[in-house]
Amino acid sequence: METDCVGPRKLGDLQLKIMKVLWARGRATVSEVQQDLDGAKALAYTTVATMLRKMESRGLVRHLSEGRTFIYEAAYEESSVSKNMADDLVERLFEGRLSSLVSHFLSTRDVSEEELDRLEKLVRKSKRSKGKQ
Amino acid sequence: METDCVGPRKLGDLQLKIMKVLWARGRATVSEVQQDLDGAKALAYTTVATMLRKMESRGLVRHLSEGRTFIYEAAYEESSVSKNMADDLVERLFEGRLSSLVSHFLSTRDVSEEELDRLEKLVRKSKRSKGKQ
DNA sequence: CATAATCTACTACTTTGGTAATACTACCTA
DNA sequence: TAGGTAGTATTACCAAAGTAGTAGATTATG
C-alpha cells in the first residue's frame, strides 16, 4: 500500500460515485458498478461503461480482463482522493485554513451534539499526540 | 443584506477567483477584475469579459452600466457561496459528517498547534451555545 | 478631424463530464 | 444451429468552463 500521493483534485459526481463503488468492492465489472450505482435513476449500462473507459484513460481506474469481461479497480486509494479533494476546496475557499472551514460549518449549519463531541475528541487527541512529539 | 440562501454549489476556478475579486472590491469593472485577477499568467481582457457575461447569465453576478462601462457585482454573498461549496464537498465525500472531514484533515495534514487551538475554542464555543439553547 | 484607446457583442474552439444509441462480437442455450 | 444475452468499441450529443480573436461602437486626444 504505497503512499501513492498525488491523484486527482477534482472528480465529477458520477466519477466519484463510481470510485466509491470500486473502493467498496475492491474490483467490479461494469454491470456490478451499474447495479451498485443506481439510486432512483438507473444509468444505462453503456453510460457506466463509457465513463469507466474515460476514467481509465485519465488514469483513475485500471482494468484487467477475465475472459472477455473487464474487471475494474480504482487506481487511487480512497483516503488519497478524499485528501486531495478536500485540500483543493480548503485551498480555493479558505486559503488553506482548516479552522476557517470548520468555523464556517459551525456557524452555518446545525451540527449535532454528537458531532461536536466527536470533534472535540479529535482535536484533543491530535493536540496530545502533537505535544509529545 | 437578505439571507439570500441557495446559490451555486460548484464554481470553476476562474469563476471563484472572479467572485473573490468582486467580494473584495464590492463592485468592479472588467479591467479592474482583470487586474486584480492576474497572478503570473494574465488573462486576456476579453476572457474576463466573456466569463463575466457567462456568469451573469448564470445569475452569479449582475451589472449596472455607468456610461458605456459595465460595473459588476456579486449576486451572492461570500459566506453563502462558501457554505454551499463546502457543504457540497462534505456531502459528496463524507456523507455530510463534518467530523469525518476534520478527522481526515487532522490525520493527513500537519495542522499547526495554533490551528488546533483555534479549532478547540471553536468547538467549545459551539457546544456552549448549543447547551443553553 | 483623425486616430488610437476602450468597451461591449459575437463567434469560435477545446476540454471534460455526463448520457446513451449503435454496432459488432462472443457465448450460452433451447 | 439459430437466436438471445452480455460485453466491448465506436460514435454522437449536450452543457459548462475556460480562453480568446474579431467586429463594431464610442470616447478621448493630439
What would you say about this model in short?
Chain A is mainly alpha-helical.
Can you give a write-up of this model?
Chain A has 133 residues and is mainly alpha-helical. Chain A folds into 2 domains: 13-78, Arc Repressor Mutant, subunit A; 106-133. Helices cover 61% and strands 9% of the residues of chain A. Chain A is built from 6 helices and 2 strands; from the N terminus they run αααββααα. Chain A has helices at residues 13-25, 30-37, 45-57, 78-94, 98-108, 113-131, and strands at 61-66, 69-74. In chain A, strands 1-2 form a two-stranded antiparallel sheet. In chain A, helix 2 (30-37) crosses helix 3 (45-57). The first copy, chain A, is elongated, with a radius of gyration of 19 Å. The two termini of chain A are 25 Å apart. Chain A binds chain B through residues 13, 16, 79, 82-83, 85-87, 89-90, 92-94, 97-99, 101-106, 108-109, 111, 113, 115-120, 122-124, 126-127, 130, and chain B through 13, 16, 79, 82-83, 85-87, 89-90, 92-94, 97-99, 101-106, 108-109, 111, 113, 115-120, 122-124, 126-127, 130. Chain A binds a DNA duplex (30 and 30 nucleotides) through residues 12-15, 29-31, 43-47, 49-51, 53-54, 58, 67-70.
